[in-house]
Amino acid sequence: MPRRISFTQYLVGHASLERPPFFYAYAGMWLHMLIGTGILAFATSIALPMIFSSMAIGSFCLSIVIYGLLTREYGLLINIGSYASSISRIFSTDILSTILLVISIIAALVSGYILLSGEYRSYYREIHDEDTINVPQWITLTMGTMVVLLCIFGLKIL
After folding, report:
1. Which of these ranges, 37-46, 69-78, 82-91, 123-132, has the smallest mean pLDDT?
2. Neighbours of 137 (CB within 10 A)
3. Nearest to 114 by CA among 85, 91, 138, 144
4. What does the alpha-carbon distance between residue 52 and residue 49 come to, in Å, rounded to a whole number?
5. Pair 10, 55: CB distance under 8 Å
6. Cα–Cα distance, 28 to 48 (Å, whole number)
7. Which residue from 58, 73, 15 is spatially nearest to 23, judged by alpha carbons?
8. pTM (whole model) above 0.90
Protein backbone atom coordinates (compact mmCIF):
# COMPACT_ATOMS: atom_id res chain seq x y z
CA MET A 1 0.00 0.00 0.00
CA PRO A 2 1.60 3.31 -1.06
CA ARG A 3 2.13 5.84 1.67
CA ARG A 4 0.05 9.01 1.38
CA ILE A 5 1.89 12.28 1.55
CA SER A 6 1.18 14.71 4.36
CA PHE A 7 -0.30 18.17 3.92
CA THR A 8 3.12 19.74 4.51
CA GLN A 9 4.72 17.55 1.85
CA TYR A 10 1.90 18.48 -0.50
CA LEU A 11 2.51 22.21 0.07
CA VAL A 12 6.25 22.13 -0.61
CA GLY A 13 6.17 19.63 -3.46
CA HIS A 14 7.31 16.39 -1.74
CA ALA A 15 9.90 14.48 -3.84
CA SER A 16 9.26 15.99 -7.27
CA LEU A 17 11.48 18.61 -8.86
CA GLU A 18 8.38 20.56 -9.88
CA ARG A 19 7.47 22.86 -7.02
CA PRO A 20 3.99 24.21 -6.34
CA PRO A 21 3.39 27.96 -5.94
CA PHE A 22 3.27 27.61 -2.16
CA PHE A 23 6.93 26.53 -2.14
CA TYR A 24 8.03 29.66 -4.00
CA ALA A 25 5.96 31.88 -1.73
CA TYR A 26 7.40 30.21 1.37
CA ALA A 27 10.98 30.41 0.12
CA GLY A 28 10.47 34.04 -0.93
CA MET A 29 9.15 34.92 2.51
CA TRP A 30 12.23 33.53 4.29
CA LEU A 31 14.68 35.01 1.81
CA HIS A 32 13.09 38.45 2.08
CA MET A 33 13.00 38.34 5.85
CA LEU A 34 16.58 37.14 6.34
CA ILE A 35 18.19 39.37 3.72
CA GLY A 36 16.05 42.43 4.49
CA THR A 37 16.55 42.18 8.25
CA GLY A 38 20.29 41.76 7.79
CA ILE A 39 20.60 44.74 5.46
CA LEU A 40 18.46 47.03 7.62
CA ALA A 41 20.17 45.94 10.84
CA PHE A 42 23.62 46.81 9.51
CA ALA A 43 22.73 49.82 7.35
CA THR A 44 20.47 51.74 9.76
CA SER A 45 20.44 52.64 13.43
CA ILE A 46 16.88 51.42 13.94
CA ALA A 47 16.28 49.00 16.82
CA LEU A 48 16.40 45.34 15.81
CA PRO A 49 13.00 44.42 17.36
CA MET A 50 11.33 47.16 15.26
CA ILE A 51 13.05 45.95 12.11
CA PHE A 52 12.32 42.28 12.78
CA SER A 53 8.63 42.71 13.63
CA SER A 54 7.88 44.85 10.59
CA MET A 55 9.99 42.66 8.29
CA ALA A 56 8.20 39.52 9.51
CA ILE A 57 4.81 40.98 8.65
CA GLY A 58 6.10 42.46 5.40
CA SER A 59 7.70 39.17 4.34
CA PHE A 60 4.48 37.30 5.06
CA CYS A 61 2.52 39.82 2.96
CA LEU A 62 5.09 39.54 0.15
CA SER A 63 4.77 35.76 0.16
CA ILE A 64 1.01 36.04 -0.23
CA VAL A 65 1.55 38.42 -3.18
CA ILE A 66 3.96 35.92 -4.77
CA TYR A 67 1.44 33.12 -4.29
CA GLY A 68 -1.36 35.28 -5.74
CA LEU A 69 0.72 36.06 -8.84
CA LEU A 70 1.77 32.44 -9.42
CA THR A 71 -1.75 31.05 -9.01
CA ARG A 72 -3.46 33.99 -10.73
CA GLU A 73 -5.58 34.67 -7.65
CA TYR A 74 -5.49 38.42 -8.05
CA GLY A 75 -7.61 39.08 -4.96
CA LEU A 76 -4.56 38.24 -2.86
CA LEU A 77 -2.70 41.18 -4.40
CA ILE A 78 -4.39 43.41 -1.83
CA ASN A 79 -1.40 42.47 0.29
CA ILE A 80 0.79 44.81 -1.76
CA GLY A 81 -0.67 47.63 0.34
CA SER A 82 -0.15 45.58 3.49
CA TYR A 83 3.46 45.00 2.49
CA ALA A 84 4.06 48.70 1.87
CA SER A 85 2.49 49.81 5.14
CA SER A 86 4.35 47.21 7.21
CA ILE A 87 7.70 48.15 5.67
CA SER A 88 6.98 51.86 6.08
CA ARG A 89 6.39 51.18 9.78
CA ILE A 90 10.14 50.58 10.13
CA PHE A 91 10.90 54.18 9.24
CA SER A 92 7.90 55.94 10.79
CA THR A 93 6.54 55.26 14.26
CA ASP A 94 3.62 57.69 14.36
CA ILE A 95 0.09 56.59 15.29
CA LEU A 96 -1.09 56.38 11.66
CA SER A 97 1.62 53.89 10.74
CA THR A 98 0.72 51.79 13.79
CA ILE A 99 -2.94 51.71 12.77
CA LEU A 100 -1.97 50.82 9.19
CA LEU A 101 0.21 48.04 10.57
CA VAL A 102 -2.77 46.57 12.45
CA ILE A 103 -4.84 46.75 9.25
CA SER A 104 -1.98 45.04 7.40
CA ILE A 105 -1.90 42.24 9.94
CA ILE A 106 -5.65 41.71 9.62
CA ALA A 107 -5.47 41.64 5.80
CA ALA A 108 -2.52 39.23 5.89
CA LEU A 109 -4.23 36.89 8.38
CA VAL A 110 -7.43 36.74 6.35
CA SER A 111 -5.52 36.25 3.09
CA GLY A 112 -3.34 33.57 4.68
CA TYR A 113 -6.41 31.75 5.95
CA ILE A 114 -8.03 31.89 2.49
CA LEU A 115 -4.82 30.64 0.90
CA LEU A 116 -4.26 27.74 3.31
CA SER A 117 -7.90 26.66 3.37
CA GLY A 118 -7.91 26.51 -0.42
CA GLU A 119 -4.73 24.44 -0.40
CA TYR A 120 -6.20 22.17 2.28
CA ARG A 121 -9.28 21.50 0.16
CA SER A 122 -7.09 20.83 -2.90
CA TYR A 123 -4.98 18.43 -0.87
CA TYR A 124 -7.97 16.38 0.17
CA ARG A 125 -9.40 16.44 -3.36
CA GLU A 126 -6.16 15.30 -5.00
CA ILE A 127 -4.63 12.99 -2.39
CA HIS A 128 -7.59 11.55 -0.49
CA ASP A 129 -10.21 11.73 -3.27
CA GLU A 130 -12.71 13.47 -0.98
CA ASP A 131 -14.75 16.37 -2.33
CA THR A 132 -16.65 17.41 0.78
CA ILE A 133 -13.77 18.20 3.12
CA ASN A 134 -13.77 21.49 4.99
CA VAL A 135 -11.19 23.18 7.14
CA PRO A 136 -11.58 22.04 10.76
CA GLN A 137 -13.99 24.29 12.63
CA TRP A 138 -11.58 25.05 15.47
CA ILE A 139 -9.15 26.65 13.00
CA THR A 140 -11.87 28.84 11.54
CA LEU A 141 -13.03 29.93 14.99
CA THR A 142 -9.48 30.67 16.13
CA MET A 143 -8.75 32.78 13.05
CA GLY A 144 -12.05 34.62 13.40
CA THR A 145 -11.33 35.35 17.05
CA MET A 146 -7.85 36.65 16.22
CA VAL A 147 -9.21 38.98 13.54
CA VAL A 148 -11.89 40.33 15.89
CA LEU A 149 -9.33 40.89 18.67
CA LEU A 150 -7.02 42.71 16.26
CA CYS A 151 -9.93 44.91 15.13
CA ILE A 152 -10.69 45.77 18.76
CA PHE A 153 -7.01 46.53 19.36
CA GLY A 154 -6.93 48.78 16.28
CA LEU A 155 -10.02 50.64 17.42
CA LYS A 156 -8.56 51.03 20.90
CA ILE A 157 -5.45 52.69 19.41
CA LEU A 158 -7.66 55.31 17.78
Report:
1. 123-132
2. 8
3. 144
4. 5
5. no
6. 21
7. 15
8. no
